[in-house]
Amino acid sequence: MDTNQPFLSLWYVRVLLIIAMIGVVMSLSAYTKLTLREAKYGQYGMTSINVRGEGEVNAKPDIGSFSFSVTAEGADAATAQKDSAEKINSILTFLKESGVEEKDIKNRDYFLNPKYRYEAVDCAMGMYCPPGNQVIDGYEVTQTVEVKVRDLDKAGDLITGAGERGATNLSQLQFTIDDESNLKAEAREAAIADAKEKANKLADSLGVKIVRMMGYYEEENNSSPYYGMGGDAMMSSEVKAVSPELPTGENTIKTIVNITYEIQ
């Protein structure tokens, strides 16, 4: 009989117990990590805060734009078109001679439409009188042109000159900034700095620490143009018009950002 067999059996049992204990310790360690993670991130994910930052930059406009229309009527389409073309060409010649480049003059609309009237119908007294037949009673042409003004000092004279040469209606004069990219970048930096400052104050109030940025979203926000004239301006070539004063003011470029930060 082998006297070493009981000793080997006892050693084997001890090894199994040690392995089992190691397994229990590892399981408890994994469970503890999972519990801490859930406590840190909560049931729906990691804990975070969201802040909204705003940035504004004011700048003087460097470009203006306006549109004008010419309306002409005639007994036939050719006559209406000829009258319209003469007025439009006169205005375009004036604009180019005043320094407006051809690339800054753009046709927006051109309409040629018939005008109608109803023929009179003789009806007996007391009887139903149906409407007369609809017949063409001439034609009407309306053409609209957009103009970009790079020399703002000439804006008033250009509007006045267009009216003196037959423009029947002038839209609002709008002052804008031709290239806003640098101004938008400046406003964005200011908005991000504002968001960071708000996030730090909020974290201090909550007694937490900001770990990292998790998300960024920038809201679409266009600059606010300045309109030099309100409504439609009706001009008459029969009266010598006075060029209006058109203050350009300042435009505001505004950027809004939303930033999400992970906290702990």
Automatic annotation (TrEMBL):
Keywords on record: Membrane, Transmembrane, Transmembrane helix
Source organism per UniProt: Candidatus Kaiserbacteria bacterium RIFOXYB1_FULL_46_14
BP term (GO), one: DNA damage response
Parts of the chain that traverse the membrane: 12-31
Record-given protein name: SIMPL domain-containing protein
The keyword Transmembrane is annotated on this UniProt entry: yes
Pfam families from the UniProt entry: SIMPL
Lineage: Bacteria, Candidatus Kaiseribacteriota
Listed InterPro entries: 26kDa_periplasmic_antigen, SIMPL/DUF541
